[in-house]
Design goal:
Layout (H helix, E strand, L loop, with lengths): L26 H74 L2 H10 L30 H12 L1
């Protein structure tokens, strides 16, 4: 290759040493910038802490509400079980009432267990209970005397 113009020809490194001085900011500007960045970082930390606290409070509130709901549900279940048990007991008592309300059962119990006898027509005492025929007895110690006084007045 032939070089026509030797002045245009470049040999070696063409990088020159820089002629300019680097930008150096003043100490005041650097302090102001550092304070602003420190304030921004501090605000950012406070915002993060605030968000964490809000999330914590919301979480505690939700857990507390679920605990209250659970205890109320437990009480409701216990009350429902009590109502069911009372209804069963009530039905059993109704069945027993029907059993004891039977006149034949009452008569058998009176005769067998209590030793009662069926009354005769001769054993009955009839009394006229009007205001004029009943007189209070003076002596309350002797009950036979007062019965005889009442019987005399009636007949």
């Amino acid at each position: 290759m032939n070089v026509l113009n030797e002045k245009i020809m470049i040999n070696g490194n063409t990088v020159l040493a820089p002629n300019h001085a680097p930008y150096r900011e003043s100490e005041q500007k650097r302090q102001v910038r550092n304070k602003k960045s420190a304030n921004k970082a501090l605000k950012k930390k406070f915002a993060i802490m605030r968000n964490i606290m809000i999330a914590f409070i919301v979480g505690i509130t939700l857990v507390g509400r679920y605990c209250i709901i659970y205890s109320l549900q437990e009480d409701l279940n216990k009350t429902t079980q009590n109502i069911t048990a009372l209804n069963k007991e009530n039905e059993n008592l109704k069945v027993e009432l029907v059993k004891y309300n039977n006149i034949q059962y009452i008569e058998d119990t009176a005769v067998n267990k209590l030793g009662m006898v069926t009354p005769d027509r001769n054993d009955a005492i009839y009394a006229d209970i009007s205001k004029n025929t009943i007189i209070a007895s003076e002596s309350s110690n002797d009950s036979n005397k007062s019965i005889s006084v009442l019987a005399e007045k009636i007949f």
